[in-house]
Amino acid sequence: MTKKALICGVSGQDGAYLSRFLLAKGYDVYGTARDAQMASFSSLITLGIRDQITFYSMALNDFRSVLQVLSLVQPDEIYNLAGQSSVGLSFDQPVETLESISVGTLNLLEAIRFMKRPIRLYNAGSSECFGNTDGQPADENTPFRPRSPYAVAKATAFWEIANYREAYNLYASTGILFNHESPLRPERFVTQKIVRSACRIAKGSQEKLKLGNIDIARDWGWAPEYVEAMWMILQQDKADDFVIATGETNKLEDFVAEVFRCVGLDWRDHVESDASLLRPSEIMVSRANPGKSAQVLGWQATYAMKDVVRMMVESFK
Question: The domain 4-180+222-244 is classified under which CATH number: 2.40.10.120, 3.40.1360.10, 3.40.50.720, 3.30.470.20?
Answer without folding.
Answer: 3.40.50.720
